[in-house]
Specification:
Blueprint lengths: L1 H16 L1 H23 L5 H11 L4 H28 L5 H21 L5 H16 L3 H25 L5 H26 L6 H8 L2 H20 L9 H20 L6 H31 L7 H19 L8 H33 L16
């Protein structure tokens, strides 16, 4: 019985972690089914392209679906017009002429798609417009019209399904990804500050900070999708820019501390700074985690009192070491690292103020009702 309960708890936790992916798979299946039914109903020549388009444009968030739809339709329209013009204006009754026309159709569009990746559908569309008449014995004009109808139907179906069926708003994804990134930062900061007295090797530094940069890159992409939803009036929420910039600055602070943590502190400094650094590590990490939870739940930010008190205690201990003359005999590189640590902590405190304002803005903003917040789980 205990094993069964453990299995179900694990299964439920797994479903919660992959809730967005499960919703996406359901939307994709429904979009494909609806597109096929509509293509059959309207007697489209090749329902395959309507189904494929619906699958392609149905993305994990509404903002990403909107971009995929506009990009795919724009690429299709451009490829259909150019490929159709080549097919109509240049005779290609022989196999050699067909090959030449194919190259002339594909090469320029491939260059355009390489310069502007949002038009990657253009060369594919030109190929279809050019070759389908050869296989189905229809005119180039009919092939263009069929292709535009198929893609238009599939794109419309995928976008409507993304909007109406278990929609995933990008703002919600921004909050979830930001909370996970703050958890990563909290863990990294705690380990780096704990390792300052003895120093950390490069492998340990890379392990500690591994994943934060990638998480921020993903967060930037989701933030762009959220802004796209706001611009299209498909969602309402705060501007994601200030939050993303604040997290990036916090990342820079952690990198600065990591560079200083490569070398151990002098023995007399390590003995006196170990306790203040432990307090700073604990309070700063707790603040990052609590801010992530508040952001996800749209609550007001946690108080900064504990973090400020810990930082003040560290600054007081540094001042006491200076009064005792301990800094006079420090080598230049050791003094620079000590200054860098203090500067990074002060900068992090200032960025905490910015994070506090961001969390407050998200808590006070008008939001569309969404799914209940799930506990933040640190990625393995």
């Amino acid at each position: 019985m205990r094993q069964i309960k453990a299995f179900w708890r694990g299964a439920i936790a797994l479903l919660q972690r992959h809730r967005a992916q499960l919703k996406l798979s359901f939307r994709v299946a429904v979009a494909a089914l609806v597109a096929f039914v509509l293509a059959q109903f309207f007697h489209l020549r090749l329902p395959l392209w309507a189904v494929l388009t619906a699958v392609i444009v149905t993305q994990v968030s509404v903002g990403r679906s909107l971009k995929a739809t506009t990009d795919y339709i724009a690429g299709t329209l451009g490829g259909a017009i150019y490929g159709g013009a080549i097919a109509v204006l240049i005779p290609h009754s022989s196999e050699t002429a067909l090959l030449a026309v194919l190259v002339l159709s594909v090469a320029p569009l491939a260059l355009v798609a390489a310069i502007n990746p949002s038009l990657t559908a253009a060369p594919v569309t030109a190929i279809i417009v050019l070759l389908v008449p050869e296989m189905n014995h229809v005119s180039a004009i009919d092939s263009i019209i069929d292709r535009l109808l198929e893609v238009g139907l599939g794109g419309f179906t995928g976008l409507i399904v993304s909007l109406l069926l278990l929609p995933s708003r990008a703002h919600r994804l921004v909050a979830e990804n930001a909370a996970q990134t703050l958890n990563r930062m909290a863990r990294a900061l705690g380990e780096l500050l704990a390792g300052l007295p003895r120093g950390l090797d490069m492998l340990a530094l890379h392990r500690i900070q591994d994943g934060i940069g990638h998480a921020l890159f993903q967060l930037q992409a989701v933030g762009a999708e959220a802004q796209r939803e706001r611009s299209a009036r498909l969602a309402f929420g705060p501007d994601t820019g200030p939050l993303l910039r604040t997290l990036l600055r916090l990342r820079h602070d952690i990198v600065m501390i990591g560079r200083a943590a490569h070398f151990p502190l002098p023995d007399n400094f390590a003995a006196r700074l170990e306790a203040p650094l432990d307090r700073v590590a604990s309070s700063f990490a707790d603040y990052l985690r609590a801010s992530g939870s508040a952001l996800l739940a749209r609550r007001m930010p946690p108080p900064l009192d504990s973090a400020e008190a810990a930082l003040a205690a560290y600054v007081d201990e540094i001042a006491a070491l200076r009064r005792d003359g301990a800094t006079r005999d420090l080598p230049g590189d050791a003094a620079e690292r000590l200054f860098a640590i203090g500067f990074a902590l002060e900068q992090m405190h200032q960025n905490f103020r910015d994070l506090e304002r961001c969390v407050t803005e998200w808590a006070e903003s008008t939001k569309i009702p969404d799914q209940p917040a799930s506990p933040i789980k640190e990625p393995l």
